[in-house]
Amino acid sequence: MPHLTSTEIAGRIEDLYGVPLADLAAHAQDQPPGMLSALLGMHDDLALAERSIDIHRDHLARLVHPERQIGRHEVSHLLDGSRRLAEAVAVRDVQAKSVAAVLQSLTRVPAPAQSPQTPSPSLPAPPLEAQSAAHSR
Predict the structure, then answer these.
(1) Rounded distance, CA 21 to CA 24, Å?
(2) Which residues lie below 8 Å from residue 7, measured CB to CB, with a gap of 6+?
(3) Burial of 39: CB neighbours in 10 Å, binned 0-12, 13-18, 19+
(4) How many C-beta atoms surround the C-beta of residue 65 within 10 A?
(5) Which of 50, 46, 49, 48 is nearest to 9 (CA)?
(6) What is the pTM of this model?
(7) Are 41 and 102 in contact (CB under 8 A)?
(8) pLDDT, tens digit (0-9, with 9 covering 90-100), for 57-97
(9) Contact at 8 Å (CB) between 35 and 106?
(10) Quick check: helix, strand or coil at residue 59?
């Protein structure tokens, strides 16, 4: 399964529901938990993991800057930052794989085709008047 970013996942959710993600999020707040809220939560977790990757990568880049000396104190920060980056990548990969699998299993149901106006059932015929046994002349 290809690695999907939160932006690509957002697009796939929008395609599935046919509505922008912000509108879906607003709609989901008023609904009981269901597939939409699960997908939005998975998307949020994926986006958070991606932001965490960026933060930890930038932190490590500052720590290993070529003009900076790496001493004993910095080594523990490098190891901690590397561990945190690895955790964020693992979370991102799991979230991306999970939400992509769920989205792959779902398809957009086409709107029901408008059938020609079906005539409403006819009303029953009014009761016939009772005929008397005596014939009129």
Answers:
(1) 5
(2) none
(3) buried
(4) 10
(5) 46
(6) 0.70
(7) no
(8) 999 999 888 888 888 888 888 999 999 999 999 999 999 99
(9) yes
(10) helix
